[in-house]
Model the fold of this input.
Amino acid sequence: MADRDANLIVALDFPTSDAALELARQLNPEDVRLKVGKQLFTAAGPDVVRVLQDLGFDIFLDLKFHDIPNTVAEAVRAAAALGVWMVNVHASGGSRMMQAAREAASAAARPPLLIGVTVLTSMAREDLAELHWDAEPIDRVCELASLAASAGLDGVVCSAAEASVLSRQHSPDFSLVTPGIRQQGDAAGDQRRIVTPLDAVAAGATHLVVGRSITASQNPAATVAQIRASLATG
Ligand code: C5P
Done:
């Protein structure tokens, strides 16, 4: 299994455990990891994570923690105890919060990768201005990614365009986890800026998060195979 193949993460954005498991059972843990986000986790709880792990999948628990340092540290500790492979926090929670999360993750028997969310890709300059953050999103992303790296986080979530900038500023082992991926011909849905898997990797993304391209496919396993093939021939 090539490294890049291992870095394909399927977003299980489903309302129920049954729907998530029906999709997961069509996929191979050798080919993909799975992302459990706020919708599925709120509906189905940690049990769905355990069942997916029992099927052999590594889980990215995408709950984007943002709270006082102690609360975030305890939430990260609970995620690590659940055995997840990756977990994330908002970098805008600040250095003390991220350092507390880092200490909690590192203290685990099997420390998960700890990833920072910089600026949500749904936010444009006017959204930042409303919050009195007078900056272009990319500048804010770079500042928050540096803060995350200084706090010892393992990487950040970013768009492919941001990955091309961040990959020049950080070491290759700083993970750049990139959503907004579509294959040629897919519907964009609500994503504003979309790129193909190969373009995202070329831009510097180390992990690709793919949701609807795979989950809404008539044949999810075939779509995974196509994406893997597109990366292998790139
Ligand atoms: O279906 P689609 O491929 O657009 O799904 C992308 C996934 O990545 C969703 O689970 C979404 O919540 C997540 N995500 C994102 N943009 C971010 C962070 C996470 O699209 N900045």
